[in-house]
Amino acid sequence: MIDLHYAVPVEQTGWKTSDGSGTVRFQWDYDAGREELLALYDKGKRKQWDAAERIDWSHEIDLDDPLRTSDEYIPLFGSPMWEKMDERARAEARRHMVAWQFSQFLHGEQGALVCTAKIVQNVPAVDAKFYAATQVMDEARHVEAYGRYLSKLGLAYPVNPHLRSLLDDVLTDARWDMTYLGMQVLIEGLALAAFGLIRNQTGDDLARALNAYVMQDEARHVMFGRHVLRSYYPQLTEAERAEREAFCAEACYLMRDRFLAEEVWETLGLDSAETVKWVQDSELQRAFRSLLFTRIVPTLKDIGLWGPTLRQTFSDMGVMGFESVDLDSVIAEDEQAADDIDAARRAAASAMAVSRAGVDEVVEAGRG
Ligand SMILES: [Fe+2]
Ligand SMILES: [Fe+2]
Q: CATH classification of 33-340, choosing from 3.40.50.1260, 3.40.50.2300, 1.10.10.60, 1.10.620.20?
């Protein structure tokens, strides 16, 4: 059972929206599966894991510095507000920042769970329904794992209004490909980049393992969106593709400019407008926000949404360089990173067993 302390009472934050579609598609043709999607489905089945077992939940988080990273990564670092804070206030700011960020991961994961269940219903092809079903289970596991992490942290934030409005746009659009585009490409693409920054920078074993394992699943999810949309978008008219590009451009600006953690600054009693302005203008924070597009840019190019609107958007945002990121090799690295953590944990467990056996032997010899 997850026991969370919410920054805002949950009775005030519940949300319902329409699923927009009402169209549920059945497909009676069962032997027309595309090889690459069936292979991904097989992989999805084989790579299921249990969040309760694979992650060491006995690990204690340092509540004053949960991610054990340099303070440079705190958005307030270097600001006049930060300079005024004593060590106690800074510790509080670190914990709230992590709680806010991981809460958005948690809510985004629930969004992914719901969106993928919607895909099972309304995608026309049966192979895509099969694969999406494995992803539904992956997303439930991610909700479980982030929820559990936050309960150890002892604090959770409600869904950010901009994330909620993006989820609303994705869910209420009746066109089946928009669920993929909004969720598998944009929201999951952004999340992957954010998980990756934490996985690579954190000094905390639990945060590293949690994000690495989730990323291993997410790599398949982004691949799913790529396979399906890559074969679908060339069939659309130029005008239909332009509509999708306009949606992506707007969502990218929103994700870059609006996720500024206002809720945290308010909760900490800081002047929200002044703090947001600082975070918006800080060179370092701008550089971090650009890094969030490392996965989205090459994926949109790969699926053929690469007309003037998106090229212009990304060059305005200064993230055009990511178009040459080799998605297959970063996905392979994500897989490897998770496997390496498993291997290190197995090695530590067997070293522990050997030393325990050594102690038993000495005790036994002493008795003899
Ligand atoms: Fe997920
Ligand atoms: Fe996902």
A: 1.10.620.20
